[in-house]
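dumping this here before i forget
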Amino acid sequence: MPFAPLPDTVRRNVLDWHGDRGRRWLEDLPATVDRLTSAWDLHPVGDPFPGGSTAYVLPLDRADGTAAVLKVDLVDDETRSEPTALRAYDGEGAVRLLDYDPASGALLLERARPGTPLLSHDFPGLDERAAARERIALACGLFRRLWRVPVPDPGLPPLPATAGLLKDWSERFALTAERTPALAADLALGLDLCEALADPPELGIANRDNHMSNVLTAQREPWLLIDPKPVLAERAFDGAFFLFKQQFHGPLGGGELLDAVAGGLGADRERVRAWAMLWTVAEIAGAWSDDDLAAKRAVLDAIRAA
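structure:
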């Protein structure tokens, strides 16, 4: 089978983010795709999907005509346990895991069709703010359904836990504060939040990458989640990145946004706020310009005041 080239944006990300490891992955990718399409009897039906970060995502049909997607990612700590979450979801609110290759970490997935992201889905008759409220309700309702206590599966990678994330953040904040005194107040808040959130009231499969572009229209269910980056966490954690992203981009914000997210997740409002603030501090620690820093501090102020 001729190898369909990786989108240029994905290739650049792989090289920029992973250096020599990424280069070796790119060199091995054609052979990996050829091996898996042969082993799983897959027949490509189009070019790789654009827009991913570091994954080669190819639409195919299985031998029985089932529409599928081959996803070969450069596996790291965030993506390694994606198959574990998808197996636990078992198609309820997320694309089904059809097969898994432990050697490469590649996934054979159900293809969501038509596959329009919730972010760009039209809601006729609704203005911008009403459409945003509808999107948030749909997304958070789906995230709420997906949160569940996992059943161990020895054939799949283990799920990371928030204890590891909190430890990593604490170490990073302390080191960054030493190097960048101008961020000291923000990072001190982050350290306090790490301590406050260290004893969760529950643990289940949550997602560190909840956003509206990963919720797609489908036929088997109206909406299906793709690309989870799972972590063992309380329900409120599902609002961390999602609320940060919504506050950053609007149009809703402040207390209205926090109420909508916490209510949609069925999670404690103050713990959703705390996780979103902590995520925002992590974003502040990695700000790439003065303007970016100012924008993320404005997000932190808005969430704190909500």
